[in-house]
Structures are given as structure tokens and as C-alpha cells.
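are you around this afternoon, could really use another pair of eyes. what follows is a protein written twice so to speak, once as letters and once as C-alpha cells for the fold. i want to understand how the C-alpha cells follow from the sequence so walk me through it. anything you notice is useful, everything is just below.
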Amino acid sequence: MDPISLTPREYYWNQIYPRPQYMRDNFNIDFGEHEQRRIKEISAWRKEFTKKLDGQAIEKEASFYVTPVEKISPTWEAALLGKGNFLCIGLSALQNNPSVIVMALIRREDSKKPDYHKLINITKSKKIDINNKRNGVDEPFLLVESWDYINSDKIYQGVSLEKNYFKNLISETLSVEDNIAASLQMPLISSPGSIGSVGGITLSSFTSSSKFSRELVKTFIQMNPPEYRNIPPPARDYEGVSFEYLPGIRLRFADRPYSTNSVMEGLPDTSYVALYEKLSKRENSLGEHSIFSNINTRFGTSISNEWSDLVKRFTSTEITVPKELDEINEYGFANLNKLIESLNVSMWSKIVYAHNLAPSFKNEDKDALNKVVLRLRADFDAHLSEIHKDEDIRKNVIDSMLGQRFQLKIMNLTSGFARVDNGGKISESHFSKSRDLTLDNFVGFMKHERVERLLHWVIKKKENKEYSVIRETITNNPGLNAQEIFNIVKNYGVPDLYKTCEWLDWMHKKGLVLYNADKRYFWLP
């Protein structure tokens, strides 16, 4: 699995030849709308700042990127020492461009000092005029007395988002069905998560490796601002440039985007093993972590095992697209290019607006959540009744789909739909939309050509009930011993511990399971 990489043009969505970020100087052409707002805002602040008298407090707060001073001459050091013992830093409107600069000082005895290339909000400061008598240069410096870090996406805020904007955009450009457009938008919208659940939404599809599917995943990653991606900027921009602000003072401008609360990761042409590794790491994430993936699946040696894996994997992510990504439209790259052509850096502000909506679950939402899960259980039961006629086997299969974290996935989807509606409050309709999308995708999944072909053989083959429930139990609960396995499977018709051990011994001889030194069992993929 090769990681996604972006060219400078792709990384910054430039419509002209993308120059290094620090070389941009044409306000109307080179800078995005969010950058233009920043430049105007900080320029106005700096103008008022320069009017202040030496030692006068600055009333208005302002946010800046902290820019390292790469070199300072002895004459400037002497001039600064005449005012006190200070650390000299640069403050910039933009992280990667010297469009608006303010020189700043922090007392060296202060225990709290900001990291370079991070965004801070200055809440208390004053002006200090520094005169370099050796070279005859006067420069106003800002003495930073109090500051706090702020979210890295702050610079994009200030743009609203129309209801269903992303779904409509995807539907119009890619010409896909309603449930596919609704599915593809969800990792972009993401979810703030809830108690006991990491935020973000993971989407998967079982898709053969292709250039189109890879480009689609890459395009959706590009729709996020750099601060939300896990892809570094071009090397030239990450390294940056040494910039002479004044004779004797050089600053280093570099593009070092960082995430404080959200990330979206693309996994083209991956496997379930690799995806599960990412999902495991995601559980330990802070903030929101979305994943857009396509899974290059392959048939196993056992039809029943293959079906068991597929149906369980349907609910292993918040969303499973019931089509191969190559199938989502008949025009292929023509429609994908329509989507790409409709995008620009203003899209980043819309994404950030959505991520800053924070719908949260209340205690009264628990009943609605439980109701949706029960309805989905009934939905799955109805659609699986012709495949698994034995009620115990069918119940065991559905239990494997509705694992421990299924409720949390529905909660993430529900809060995501609240964001889609441009609101901060969860309602009954958002629970209904989560159920409807999950069910629509499951129906599409059952009608997928590959699944239908597989189900033909599953239905034709006589199913051994005891084998099925033991297999599902080990798959869903790896690391159980024989007694613990029996405590579960006895509810599905396995008569006693002796029979359970006979099955475990047979499965081990067939190479279907392995066990460790403590005789704890694991199903082999």
C-alpha cells in the first residue's frame, strides 16, 4: 500500500503554476480568501499598534503565528539588552509567508514560551520602541505578556455552510445515487464524537486497486485544509526560507501545518488488516479522526468464512459504501474532473465551519439511540432471514454485526448528520437518517454482484449451526478460553463444554484457529 502524495499544485489547489509559498506577493491572485482576511485583519491591527506610544498597553487582542528568529546581529542584541533580558521572536499573519510581520519580545524569565510555527492569541501586551543606534534603525516591538494557543484551524473561520452543501456537490459532479453521495460526504463532515467514543467517521468500500479509486480518495483528502491532513507539505515549503526582515534580523518562514483537533486520513488500495490497525490507533486519538478507505479484498478458501467476514466487516466502520468506487459513475474520470474543477481553497473554510459545529448527546437521546439500534437489528434480521433460516445462527450473525462499538458508530453518524443540517443540536430526524443510510447501504451491499454470487453458495450449502456460532464467537471475541467460549455459545444451541472442545480441536487441526500457551483461541484470517 503506497501512501498518498500530493504535488505542490494538488497540495495548495493553485490554478496557476504554484510558486513556493514564501514567494507569493500578489494579494488578489496568490492568496486564498481566508489568507486575504488574515492579511487585512492583521494589517489593520499593526497600523493601530504602530501609533501607540512607547510602553503603552495594546487593548485589542490578536492572533499570530510564532516565527523563529534565525539570525540576529550583535547590534540588535545590544539594543534589546538596553530594554531588558528578552527572547526575540517574529509574529506573522501567515505561517508560510512574510506578508505582515510584527517583531516581538518575551521575557526570558517567563516559564511559558510558545512553540515556533504555532498559532497563538495574544491577550496582554504593550509596545516597546527599540532604537538600534549603531545602524540608525527604529523598530516597534510587541512585548508579549500573556498569550494562549488557539486551534490551528482558526484562520479559516468566518465562512458559513449551506445545508447539505457537500452532498449536493458530490451528487451533482459525480452523478451518484442519494445514499452514495450522503455516504461520501460523511468523512468530510466528520463527527465531534461523544463520551467513550473518538470523533470522526470512517468510510470503507471493497474495491479492486485502480487509478480511479486512488484518485477519488486523494481528491477527498485534498478537500480538507492542510491542518486536517496527515500528508506533509512539499519539501521546499516545509523547509521554508530565511527572510531578512531588517538588516541584522532574519526570520525563517516555513509551512508546518499541524492539527489540534481534526485529521482525515486516506487509505487507497489497503487491506482489512491495515485498516484495523488504523482503527485501533484511532481509538487512542484525541479530537476527530476520519478515514476514507477502499479495501482490496480477496476471496478466502471457505465460502462460509468469506461471508462471515464480509457481513461483519460491513459494520466495522461507520459507513461501508455498497459499491466499488470504480462503479460510482459511468463517466469515470470525466465526472471526477468535474468535482476537482469545482474545488478551491475556499472549500477548506467550509470544512472547518462544519468541524466547529459541536452537536452533543444528552441523556434524553439514549432512548432514541437504543430505538435505532433495535430497529436496525430487526432490519438486518429481515434481510438475512432467507440466508440464515436457523434463528440461532441468524441471531449470532447479527450479534457479530452489532458489536460493542456499534452504538458509538451510530452516535458518530447521528452527530455528523446534525452537522450536515448546519446545526448544533441532535434531533430525532438525525437518528432516523443514520438508520436510513445504514439500511440503504446494507441493502445495496446485499445486491452487490460479488455478495450475491457468494450468497448463492451460502444458501446452497447446508450450514452447520454449532460450527457457525463457535466460529463467530471466536472471531468476535479473540483470546477466549474454551470455558469462556462455551459460556457464550450455549445460548445458541451448543449442548455442552465437551462438544465445544471437540469443535475447537477439529478447527485447530484444520488450521482455522490457533491458541497460545494459555489455551486462548484466535481465528486465523
